[in-house]
Amino acid sequence: MDIKVCRYFTTLARTKSYARASRELFLTTQGLSASIKRLEATMGVPLISNGSGTLELTEYGRIFYQRACAMQNEYDLMLDEINTLQRRRSGNILLAVSTGLINSLPHDAIERFNEQSTTGAHVEITRDLVDHDCESNLYEKTCDFALLNDPIDHTMFSSLPILKDRMHLVVKSDCPLAPKAMICASDLNGLTIACVTPGEFKTSKKNEPIIREAAPDAKFIYSTEMIAVLEAAMQGRAAALMPRPHATLFEKEGLVGIPVEELTWGFGVAWRTDRTLSPQDEEFLAFLKQYQKFYC
């Protein structure tokens, strides 16, 4: 039996909700439901009862839950001990990076850390991934650390903030808002706003309700890529909502980036709370602290 299925079942039993469990496990509800049905077929008995309208464990399910929790804990302890030993001996650190965030650090930062490490640490960066995929990799322990956009709010993750800032509204230089040093979310009322989809950029999911409440007549254009959001502003089709590093790239193109007071953005480095930090890990986190910057 795959140990992952035990984790799926114990999480579902604890949350008593397919929706909550699937979010915590970074699965679809359909995928989780299919896994539970396959588990029940393997065991040959029903483990979940939905007869009363609420999710409850059957008598078989309660026995399985108790044993699965113990098995999962032992597996996690074993894996942690093996990984800790492996990390101490190899010094390798696998870093997952949410799309574009590596550009928020100096271009040679990781290379310099690898060259200057006094503990033998060596950071390897995985290819850029969207926030959800980075979180999933971290949860599944297929990476050691992850650079993630805020909010980093999963209960299984600890994090070190690297940047705290405001989102910027990018507009043409002749826009009435352009001369302002800062604007409020209510100033977006009546505008068409281009932004990255919440599925690709967690900050959009956090900020969209703020905009809809303060600026009910604002309209949204969504894109899966930041460059497409910026193109919408360059073509005059919309104002673009994006982080400072992107907003300042094209100021010479007749565009102006204005911070929006209520709309925050930031990123940090995250790791699993059950990870025992090695000397190499501690050195890497201390190295990242020098790049902390808080605008708000």
Automatic annotation (TrEMBL):
Domain HTH lysR-type per the UniProt entry, residue ranges: 1-58
GO MF annotation list: DNA binding; DNA-binding transcription factor activity
PROSITE patterns named in the record: HTH_LYSR
SUPFAM superfamilies in the cross-refs: Periplasmic binding protein-like II, Winged helix' DNA-binding domain
Pfam families on file: HTH_1 (PF00126), LysR_substrate (PF03466)
Keyword annotations from UniProtKB, A to Z: DNA-binding, Transcription, Transcription regulation
GO terms for cellular component: cytosol
Keyword Metal-binding recorded: no
Claim: Transcription regulation is one of the keywords in the record: yes
Family: Belongs to the LysR transcriptional regulatory family.
Name of this chain's protein: HTH lysR-type domain-containing protein
Source species taxonomy: Bacteria, Bacillati, Actinomycetota, Coriobacteriia, Eggerthellales
